[in-house]
Amino acid sequence: MHATPEPTAVRRVACIGAGVIGGGWVAHFLARGYQVTAWDPAPDFEPKLRRLVDAAWPALVELGLADGADRANLTIAATLPEAVADAEFVQESAPEDLGLKQDLLARLDAATPPGVVISSSTSGYGMTEMQSGCTRPERLVVGHPFNPPYLIPLVEVVGGERTERWAVDWASAFFEVAGKSVITMDREVPGFIANRLQEAIWREALHMVANGEATVEQIDSSITEGPGLRWPLFGPCLTFHLAGGEGGMAHMLDHFGPSLKSPWTRLEAPELTDELRDRMVEGCETASDGRDIAELVADRDRAVIAVLRAVEAVRGAR
Amino acid sequence: MHATPEPTAVRRVACIGAGVIGGGWVAHFLARGYQVTAWDPAPDFEPKLRRLVDAAWPALVELGLADGADRANLTIAATLPEAVADAEFVQESAPEDLGLKQDLLARLDAATPPGVVISSSTSGYGMTEMQSGCTRPERLVVGHPFNPPYLIPLVEVVGGERTERWAVDWASAFFEVAGKSVITMDREVPGFIANRLQEAIWREALHMVANGEATVEQIDSSITEGPGLRWPLFGPCLTFHLAGGEGGMAHMLDHFGPSLKSPWTRLEAPELTDELRDRMVEGCETASDGRDIAELVADRDRAVIAVLRAVEAVRGAR
Fold first, then answer.
1. Hey, which of A164, A177, A188, A266 has its CA 20 to 30 A from A54?
2. Average pLDDT in chain A
3. Domain A7-184 maps to which CATH number in 3.20.20.70, 3.40.1700.10, 1.10.220.110, 3.40.50.720?
């Protein structure tokens, strides 16, 4: 007996935890026109949360608010059960502490109406380990956002072993309705996808700073003046597809493949088997969506110019 | 006895190797108003090179050409010595093959007027190992660009053991004059800075595809819809400075530091010593350039919105 609303019919959202991520979710859902109830165990969270929402609001106004969007639609709950009592969706954004998440999700599970999906913002725990104390684990999913959740579209959705498929599908559909870009994962991987990639960069950066190989400023400039300008349009795979010239990913792997043996990062590379090569080449073909290399290059160039100008305008406004 | 011109006085540039990177350099230098001589050992390189320059030209026109910039300023050399005989700067962009680079740089060194700086586009070799066969190794530097060199500003400049300091300084100054963003490195690190970071992402991505943890399309979307939107303005360090909320990098490391022990990537993290923590915190303070967290957040939000719109415009034009 589910009291699960249609994803498009959801009006009331509960946000549990009101730090940078939880507060960012509050701003996002308010901007999309939802009634939002927030709760956080910190006694003084309300002014901080309102400050965060107020700081985000001009950006959200500029992006375009949904009909009925209003900061007055934010309700501060005094207790956890009060926050979720009539929620139609719950987003949990507590600190990254497994024991804390397990306890909190169990309490949320006990207080949230059956059939209502509960999503965790965890940056890397699997739902299998987090849902261990829940009575109705079938409706718990990971819905991993990026900072700030009110601007960065990505949400990674994945269930745990005891999550039922309908809950994963429902969460993916709901996040799409709520204006997010969703990647639905079929299996649990620690760190999901984007954080594994981002964390690899971050760890290499920390090593370089620790060893005096680069400064914080050099690391940041090396991204903002370099590869970071390509990544808003094409991810690392299509970017390297273009690095192969007219031969694309196939040429790139045949030409630069041996570089995988180079000590260019502390991360060991996988063996570049024929199977992996073909998988990369075919993936790039699919992602190219009918565009040949020249068309992809033209798209990339237009995007890089637009991104350069966008960043210059922000820097120039200082 | 150097016949080294002032960086601002250079008019004639030789580009050796005319593939994706070499051809991109040709397009860049033409757009900046230089006389460019190109040479490549492939007998049919000229039509390919002209196609590449023609494809890049509309983007360069839109960005704004330098006075006197003209595709007619491209000269095709029949031989390597002819290409560099009266060059005031030489950029080498041959395939990534150490033996080939060593031979080629030795030939360039023999044919290029003394005092003229020779720069290699190598993606990761150290100049120390590449300059081994040169008679005048003091003027050889790495000048590592990013694809496409005519749009992505970054050039990483670093010398080898036998490079003299004046050549590194001259190359950095010249690249700035020629419209690039320069990071001058004090020591050789395999892969320099940006490629170490980029390669860490790339290897993690290859592992995930090899293990069926993610598809090419999911990997690319996880960047383009997620962290990739933040990186054009703030690199990984300042991005995480903001993830710490009002406490900045210090709070971020204290809060998420334990995540470095998580298996979120195949790259082992360094020990988060007090020294490393302080270095990251101080680096972020410097990079913040007087802006408090609220001001950084406002800058980031403006940039993300502008980048989102830039990318949407390119996607919408398809």
1. A177
2. 95
3. 3.40.50.720
